[in-house]
Amino acid sequence: MEDKPLIEINQLVKTYTMAGEVVPILKEISFSIEQGEFVAIVGPSGSGKSALMNMIGCLDIPSSGSYLLDGQEVSSMSENRQAQVRNEKIGFIFQSFNLLPKLSALENVELPLIYRGISQKERHAMAELALTNVGLADRTHHKPMQLSGGQQQRVAIARALAGDPPILLADEPTGALDTKTGKEIMQMLHDLNAKGHTIIVITHDPEIANQAKRVIRIQDGQITEDRGVAS
Known about the structure:
6-stranded mixed β-sheet, 7 helices, globular, 4-stranded antiparallel β-sheet
């Protein structure tokens, strides 16, 4: 049997109603992503890339069209089922890190595992391993304010990785970092891709996009380019 793409998007449309007027955000978007790809979705502010990220991340559903994630139609799922799929299949990495300031690095990484119903002992071990894998074994009990920006993003990556999801969805992952630290974070994403994770980076920065193996360019809610980058 032929392997299905990990992500399959077909004729996806998203509209919002503002002041009684229907505003199209995404216009019949179609593409697929295979397991193990490293893809950048790039476009300027207002292009629709954030709306597309929300669709891919199961944070929103399309107005029409189809989104199959690992063979399952997302738009027909209940909110609870969407949340479950999101938690199991997708690890999120945000520009602003989205760490809870009163929790330690370890507790921040454990959070998604709590929602999966994993026992305290097991999730503690999983979180420690994830922090070790991003080079922060000696920072497990530090609060976010005690960490540098690069270290905070590493905690966010550890949190995304802890449950071993097949997809890592990174929204402007280097946006709040200096150039050197940004390069280290991108190298970390490349290393994770080499280990089999599917990486999707959302960015407005062509330099970041060009580090991916495939670039999908979006403008005015439509795909204007979808190219592989020679490895």
